[in-house]
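In the previous chapter we treated chains in isolation. Here, by contrast, the input contains two separate entities that must be folded as one system, with a combined length of 808 residues.
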Amino acid sequence: MGQIIQYVKSYLTSDQTPGAAGNMFWVLVYILLVFAGLSVAVIAMNWLERKILAHMQVRLGPMRVGPHGLLQPIADAIKLLLKEDILPAEADGLIFWTAPFLVVLAAFTVFVVVPFGPTHAITDMNIGILFMLGVSSLSVLGIVMAGWASNSHYPLIGALRSSAQMVSYEVAMGLAVVSAILMTSLNAEGTGTLSMIGIVQAQQVQHEWFIFKFFPLGLVAFFIFAVAMVAETNRAPFDLAEAESELTAGFHTEYSGFRWSLFFLAEYSAMIAVSSIAVTLWLGGWLRPFPNVLSGATWDEIFSFFPGASFLFLAAMCFYNTARMPKHPLFRIQTIGLAAFGAVLGLIGLVLFIPGVRVRIQDIFWFSAKVAGFMYLYIWYRGTFPRYRFDQLMRMGWKVLLPLGLGVLILTASVALLQQKIWRP
Amino acid sequence: MNEPNTLSHLDLETHEKPFLDANELVLNMGPQHPATHGVLRVILHLDGEKVLGLECVIGYLHRGVEKIGEHRTYTMFNPYVDRMDYVAAVSNGLGYCETVEKLLNVEPPARAQHVRVILTELNRIASHQLWLGTHALDIGAITPLFYTFRDREEILKIYEKYCGARLTTHAFRIGGLQYETYAGFEKEVKNFLDFFRPKIDEYEELLTTNRIWVERTKKVGVISGKDCIALGVTGPVLRASGVKWDLRKAQPYANYKNFDFEIPTGQNGDTYDRYLVRMAEMRQSVRIIQQAVDGLPEGPIIAKVPKVMKPAVGEVYHSIEAPKGELGYFIVSDGSTQPYRVRVRPPSFVNLQALDLMCRGQLVADVIAVIGTLDIVLGEVDR
C-alpha cells in the first residue's frame, strides 16, 4: 500500500509529463482528464456554434431547453442515443460498423501529445508532431470506409471528395509544419525538435512566437496551415464532403443515432486537434501573450489573474441575463437554472484565484483560450463563406497553397541559415 | 435575333458518354432533397463529378389547377391561381385578373392600376429575396437567407395589413380591387422603400465581390440568348443572356407604360449575370413603386363588372412579366359562367427545361447552383 502511495506521490515532484516520467497512474488520470475535457469541449462547442451562428444570422438559436438553450446539447445527445441504429440492407455490415470507431479513434488518439502545459500532456514524444499529423490523417480511412460500406451514391461521392481533399491538403499542411519546425533549430546547438513540448519551449527560449518569426514568413506559413486545417477537418467553406445542399449529408448520410454522433464527436475533436497544432506551432502553445513587451514578475502575476477573471466575467454575463429573464412564473426554473450556472462559473473563477491554483492553471488556460479563438474562427467561416466547388478546392490546394508552402519553406531555410552562419557566426 | 429559332442544334434526347470506358453513375436527386426547391426529382448521369446529362421528373405537386378552372366560375377560380407560384401569388393574381378583364372588355380604374403595380412590384422584390436566400444557401452561404427573410417580412406585413393574407394573398379582383388601401398604406410603402434600399447594398456586400461566390457562379450554367429563345426561356434568365425582353416594356400591361424604369440585362448568360440582373431588378422595382406611390390617384377602385360574369364566346391569351418570367393565361370562353378551358403558361415550367442544357459538362455542385439560379417553384411547374 505504502509502495503504491509512494509511486503515486513520486510523480508530483517531477517536471516531466506523466508519460515521459513513466508513471502509469498519472497517465491514466491525465487520459481521463483529457477525455472528459474534450467531451465537455465538444458539448460546449455544439451549443456555442448554434448560438454564435444564430446571432450572426439575426436569430436567437436554441432558447427552449434550459436557460438560453444551455441544455440543448444534452437533449440532443439523449435523442441521438435513443434513436434506432439503422444498418442499410445492402451495406457492408462490418465495415459500416467499424468506420465511425476508426474516425473517433484517430481524432482522440492525437490528444496523447497535445501539450496543455510544460508538464500537462499525457506524454511527450520526440516525434510528437509527426505522430499528430500521422494519426489524424488516419481518419480519412474511416471516412472512405463509411462512404464505401454505405453502398449508396451520396456517401460514396462524399467519401471520395473527402479523401481527395484531405490527402491533398495534408501536403500543404506538412510543408507549413516543416517550416515551423525549422525555426526550432535556431539555438546554440542548432538542433531542432519534433516534440510538441519542445516546439513551445523553443518559442519560449527564442522569446518569439513562430507566427512573428522572420516576418512575414512565419505568418504566411501560419496562414497556409490555417487554411489547410479547415479543409482537413471538412468544415465550411471546404465542407464539400458533407455539402448539405448537394450530397445531403455526404459520407454519413446513411448513419443514424449513436454512430452518427460518433462522426459528430470526431469532427469536433479533430477541429480541436488541428487547432492545437496551430497553437503549438505558431502561437506559443501555453505561453501567455506579450512575453517581451510586458515582461517581469509583476506582469506574470497580473496575467495569472486572467483565468479567474474570465470565469468571473462569464458568471457576470449569466447574472446579467438572469436579471433580463422574463418575470413570468413559467420562466422561474430557467431563471434559477441560469443563476445557478452563473454561480458555478463564479465559484470556479474564485477557485482559480487561489495563488497555488492560479499559477498551475494558467498554462492550460492560455492554451485553451487560443484554441477557443480558432473554434470561433471556424464558426465565423461557416457563417460567412459560400462553399467551394470541388475543382476549385483542388486547384487551391495544389496550385496555390503547395507552391506557397514550398516557397516559404525554402525562404525560411535560407533565412535561418543566413542568420546562423553570417549574422551570428 | 432575326435568325430562325430552332432546337435543331440542341441535342436534348441523348446525353454525353463517359470518358473512355468509365462506368456511368446514375444519381437520383430528389424528390426529397434539400436543394431541389420542393419536390423536383433530377436523375443525374455522372462521370465521376461531371454531369453528362440529366432528366427532370416532375408532377409530384400536380393538383390539376387548370382542370379545376373549368369547374369554377371566373371569380371562384381567382384564389386558385395564387397557389401556383406561391412566392409570387400577387403576380399570378394580376395575370389572371387582367386576362379575364380582357375577355370581358373591362378597364380597371386608375387607382386600382396603381395599387396593383405597387403590390406586384413588392411581390417581385419578395420573390427575388426568397430566390437570393435559397440560392445563396444552395451555394453554401447560409447567412444571406436570414437577412432576406428578415426584410421580406416587411413586405408580408404590408400584404397582411392590406388583405389579411401574407403568402397566397388573393389581393386583386376582376375589374380592380376589393379593398381600399388601409390608412397609412402609402406611408408604410414609402417607409419600406427607404428601409429596403440600403438592404440591397447589404446583400450585394455579402456576395457580389465575394471571391468564392464569384468563382462558384461565373461561367456556371451558361446559356446563350439564342438557346433561351429556342427553349422559350423568359424572365431574368433570358435577360441575363443579353436579350432585352421584358413584357412590362415590350407589351405594356397594367399601367407600366406610365412608369420610368430600365430593363437590366447581362452579357454572359451565366449564374453570376443572372444574380446581377435580379439584384438590379430589385432596384428597378423600388424605383417603380416609388413612382406609383408618389402618383397614387384618387378615385374608384373597381370598374363596373357584372355580378355574374358571362364573357362572350371567344378566347384570349394575356401574359405578364412575373418575377420568374413570362406568365401567360389562355382562357377560352363558351359564353357560360365557367371557362371552357384555362391554360397557364408558367415561367418556371418552361425555364426548367433548360436545366439539362445548362448543366451538361458541369459538376454536381453546379447543378445545385443552376437549379437555384433558374428560380423555379414546383407549385408552378406541376400546377
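Residues 110-138 of chain B form the longest helix (29 residues). The interface with chain A takes residues 25, 27-28, 33-35, 49, 136-143, 145-147, 150, 207, 210, 212-213, 215-216, 363-368 of chain B (CB under 8 Å). Compare these points with the single-chain example from earlier in the chapter.
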